[in-house]
Description:
The chain has helices spanning about 30-40, 55-60, 65-70, 90-95, 100-115, 145-155, 160-170, 200, and strands spanning about 10-15, 45-50, 70-75, 80, 85, 125, 130-135, 175-180, 185-190, 210. It has a 6-stranded mixed sheet with strand order 5-4-3-2-1-10. The chain has a 4-stranded antiparallel sheet with strand order 6-7-9-8. β4 (about 80) and β5 (about 85) form a beta hairpin. The protein is of the alpha/beta class. The chain starts with 11 loop residues before the first strand and ends in a 6-residue tail after the last strand. The structure holds 1-O-phosphono-alpha-D-mannopyranose. 1-O-phosphono-alpha-D-mannopyranose binds near residues 18 and 25. It is an enzyme of class 5 (isomerase). Involved in the synthesis of the GDP-mannose and dolichol-phosphate-mannose required for a number of critical mannosyl transfer reactions. Its cofactor is Mg(2+). One of its GO terms (biological process) is protein N-linked glycosylation.
Amino acid sequence: MAEWQVREHPDTIVLFDVDGTLTPARRKITPEIAEILKILKKKVVVGFVGGSDIAKQQEQLGQNAINEFDFAFSENGLTAYRLGKQLASQSFIDWIGEEKYSKLANFILKYIADLDLPKKRGTFIEFRNGMINVSPIGRNCSMEERNEFEAYDKIHNIRPKFVQALKDAFPDYSLTFSIGGQISFDVFPTGWDKTYCLDHIESEGFKKIHFFGDKTYE
Ligand code: M1P
């Protein structure tokens, strides 16, 4: 018997996006939200599902997040935990293969090299287990530079144009490009979006699945 059978609604799971939902982008959870989640967990099964890797999610939600949430889904569920125990996962590099990945990475780095931006920092491609994350300014920019880039991007459409160039260059790669945050976009196999995490809970027999997230448009 799963430990949540004693809760008021054991057949209901509530899943929360992380950045922009449980916390502001890349920031820590507030004590108020953490307290609300504790109360909620008495009633239903609670999980989070975000695009970031587990290290970043733990920085934001607390080092013990994989035990505090019933389900913890990093990289949309490509890295997954149930009651603190890791579940099986797949990897982006195994799926795409080194040769195709190399062509993709070279295209991305050349495209960024040719981009005229007010500021560039470092870590333009972050290689994760289930996806890559591409940032034209570079992921190790400061909070202030992150906000500046977001504002600049709203005017100049740097990311939408970049994504279109990738779609045109790799039409047969079956990749999805998702602009979810402030400074980057995620690249993953089509189907490995946030719905991927549902594969991990299918066998649990939940009757209701609620998802709360921001930017739920395409
Ligand atoms: O959760 C939304 C996105 O949050 C971050 O994006 P950014 O650094 O651009 O604000 C990243 O972790 C990204 O992978 C994620 O999709």
